[in-house]
């Protein structure tokens, strides 16, 4: 395979690559937003005279004067359209000024009065607002049931019944949610940090009631998204509205302090998992019931139990999701939504079962390998979980592990052997192989080079580079002869960089366009649409799989946990670019480390809103936390996927990583922590 370095690497390192906030533009003004100070209620008044009196203030926007927007599905985008306050931290007003500092100071001078009402932000399993959503994201059944799960479980020789909780977690991309908007003769141009310019274009066209062809969204480089930029967020609406009202180009970047309430987060979850097995660990019943939250503004139903529908053979299987509709900011997409919290619970439960019956945790998973997808009964297009587990066990030195937990600890708490307890853990990973319909164009240039155009997004993944390789392979030329243009809604319409579907979805369109252009005359651009090809694909269960291994050292005195080693082995179809693929995998695993040990957004029940405001209060894993981390993969040749034979790789790296670490912590200490993150206090 071609191991190609990122095409834009030099531009990024030298600063030549521009991000949304960095585009130079004449006459620009800056916006700064005001967040609701009430947990729920209505806005009584907005007094703007003091703010307006500050020299350099151009405009104040709020429910009292904002232009009307057309309603769209996502209620979070109805910026300043009502006096209603749905949660603390919601954007209720904004100031536009000549400088960012002036806008910030004027925002402080705005007097917003509220008629407050009691708010409720507490996630609970027996909450009065608990309800069953019609579906879970993106289009999965809310509940599934096969056989007689309750009856079978109660008849099982071995019964594990455990509840796991995961906290709210926030994506913290390096580049903030930033937008520069300008209206030019009724046409809206937006430089915006997003995961899909076509989708942002369509939503803005709807909101501002203009033809999609009159809106252009430009985003050639994006400094991370992880899902939080997967759909347009209020920032781009604010920039476009402010530009419209003032007649000036307006820049708006969400400060990290305001991000926690306004750009989405992963819902906290409460998950009850029941595993019923025989004495050898063969599963007869698997029940996975999830309670999570959504806001009153927008329903977001994380698909937390869906991985349980594909993981293990069990004749009796039940999955369910219930939502609390609370006075909280709307949850949204965060890397491997569903699989990430769901597989934390399921894979910790598998580990607990393994210890309960004395079967090796790797062997337990192999023993429960299904022949077909457990819930749907569909054949897998390919499934190499067992190969991943075996390969990982061999590479990680799993055989040398002492099976009993807490075995490495010295006798007594402060024994002579040192204060460190070591343990190893394993967990499985899975992620669906999605593919969306896309359009792409290709042209042979007079100098023999090729240009490929598609409104794909590179959010740091290496998508531009990977698409170049795919095009070069289809054309039978060296990648250096191909230019791929992405990140602009004026290019052929593309799906978002989400659901790990980019390479499969965009790649299919790029591949087909390149095939077609080989037969076309020079200079003629050929455009293809893969809607039909995607619709016509056969019924297979398409999923990537993986095995995560972790070794931890726990300080017996302080409970401090260091992850000594992590290894991920993945089966994700054909890997197009090993260089960027490895980065994707270890990036996901690093995020899983953060999830296991650090990441936690704390809801303030008294006032509403998350207490976290910055990276000092929301800890993400940094380089020093990652001592020895590696990712490898099993060669998969799967003919049922797409012309490249690839599965998605952007998200599976995080799946199971937290469970592997939690299981290693248990192995090291004998303490089973079922509530993330595993902080020292929970071990002492
Ligand atoms: Mo990813 S959370 O599907 O952008």
TrEMBL record:
Q: SMART domains, per this entry?
A: Ald_Xan_dh_C (SM01008)
The record ties this protein, via SUPFAM superfamilies, to: CO dehydrogenase molybdoprotein N-domain-like (SSF54665), Molybdenum cofactor-binding domain (SSF56003)
Domain of life of the native organism: Bacteria
Q: Sorted alphabetically, which keywords does the UniProt record give?
A: Molybdenum, Oxidoreductase
Which segments constitute the Aldehyde oxidase/xanthine dehydrogenase a/b hammerhead domain? 14-118
What the entry lists under Gene3D superfamilies is as follows: Aldehyde oxidase/xanthine dehydrogenase, a/b hammerhead, Aldehyde oxidase/xanthine dehydrogenase, molybdopterin binding domain
Q: What is this protein called?
A: Xanthine dehydrogenase family protein molybdopterin-binding subunit
């Amino acid at each position: 395979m071609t191991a190609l370095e990122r095409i834009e690497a030099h531009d990024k390192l030298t600063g030549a690559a521009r991000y949304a906030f960095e585009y130079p533009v004449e006459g620009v003004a800056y916006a700064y937003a005001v967040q609701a100070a009430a947990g729920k209620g209505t806005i009584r008044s907005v007094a703007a005279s003091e703010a307006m009196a500050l020299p350099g203030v151009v405009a104040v926007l709020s429910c009292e004067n904002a232009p009307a927007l057309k309603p769209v599905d996502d209620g979070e985008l109805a910026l300043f359209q009502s006096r209603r306050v749905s949660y603390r931290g919601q954007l209720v007003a904004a100031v536009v000024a000549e400088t960012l500092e002036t806008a910030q100071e004027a925002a402080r001078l705005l007097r917003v009065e509220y008629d407050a009402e009691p708010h409720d932000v507490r996630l609970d399993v027996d909450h009065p607002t608990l309800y069953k959503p019609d579906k879970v994201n993106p289009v999965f059944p809310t509940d599934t049931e096969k056989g007689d799960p309750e009856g079978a479980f109660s008849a099982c020789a071995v019964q594990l019944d455990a509840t796991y909780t995961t906290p709210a977690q926030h994506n913290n991309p390096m580049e903030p949610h930033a937008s520069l908007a300008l209206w030019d003769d009724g046409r809206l141009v937006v430089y915006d940090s997003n995961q899909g310019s076509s989708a942002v274009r369509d939503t803005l066209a709807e909101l501002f009631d203009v033809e999609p062809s009159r809106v252009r969204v430009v985003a050639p480089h994006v400094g991370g998204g992880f899902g939080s930029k997967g759909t347009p967020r209020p920032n781009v609406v604010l920039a476009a509205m402010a530009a419209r009202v003032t007649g000036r180009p307006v820049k708006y970047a969400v400060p990290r302090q305001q991000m926690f309430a306004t750009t989405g987060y992963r819902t906290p979850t409460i998950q009850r998992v029941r595993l019923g097995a025989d004495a050898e660990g063969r599963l007869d019943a698997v029940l996975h019931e999830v309670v999570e939250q959504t806001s009153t503004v927008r329903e977001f139903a994380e698909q937390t139990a869906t991985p349980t529908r594909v993981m293990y053979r069990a004749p009796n299987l039940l999955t369910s999701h219930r939502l609390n509709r609370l006075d909280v900011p709307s949850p949204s997409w965060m890397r491997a939504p569903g699989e990430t919290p769901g597989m934390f619970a399921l894979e910790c439960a598998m580990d607990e079962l393994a210890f309960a019956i004395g079967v090796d945790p790797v062997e337990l998973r192999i023993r429960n390998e299904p022949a077909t997808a457990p819930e749907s009964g569909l054949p897998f297009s390919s499934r190499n979980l067992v190969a991943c587990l075996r390969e990982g066990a061999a590479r990680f030195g799993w055989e040398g592990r002492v099976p009993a937990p807490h075995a490495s600890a010295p006798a007594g708490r402060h024994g002579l052997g040192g204060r460190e307890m070591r343990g190893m853990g394993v967990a499985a990973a899975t992620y669906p192989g999605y593919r969306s319909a896309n359009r792409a164009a290709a042209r042979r240039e007079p100098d023999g080079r090729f240009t490929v155009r598609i409104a794909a997004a590179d959010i740091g993944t290496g998508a531009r580079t990977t698409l170049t390789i795919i095009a070069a392979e289809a054309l039978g030329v060296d990648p250096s002869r191909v230019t791929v243009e992405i990140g602009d809604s004026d290019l052929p319409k593309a799906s978002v960089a989400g659901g790990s579907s980019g390479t499969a979805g965009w790649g299919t369109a790029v591949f087909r366009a390149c095939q077609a252009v080989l037969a076309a005359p020079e200079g003629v651009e050929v455009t293809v649409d893969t809607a039909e090809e995607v619709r016509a694909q056969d019924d297979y269960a398409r999923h990537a799989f993986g095995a995560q291994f972790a070794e931890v050292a726990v300080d017996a005195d302080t409970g401090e946990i260091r992850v000594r080693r992590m290894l991920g082995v993945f089966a994700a179809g054909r890997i197009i670019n090993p260089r960027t693929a490895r980065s994707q995998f270890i990036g996901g695993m690093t995020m899983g480390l953060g999830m296991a040990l650090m990441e936690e957004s704390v809801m303030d029940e008294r006032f509403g809103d998350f207490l976290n405001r910055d990276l000092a209060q929301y800890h993400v894993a940094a380089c020093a936390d990652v001592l020895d981390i590696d990712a490898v993969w099993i060669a998969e040749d799967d003919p049922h996927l797409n012309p490249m034979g690839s599965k998605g790789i952007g998200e599976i790296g995080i799946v199971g990583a937290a469970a592997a670490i939690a299981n290693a912590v248990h192995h090291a200490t004998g303490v089973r922590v079922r509530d993330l993150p595993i902080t020292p206090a929970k071990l002492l």
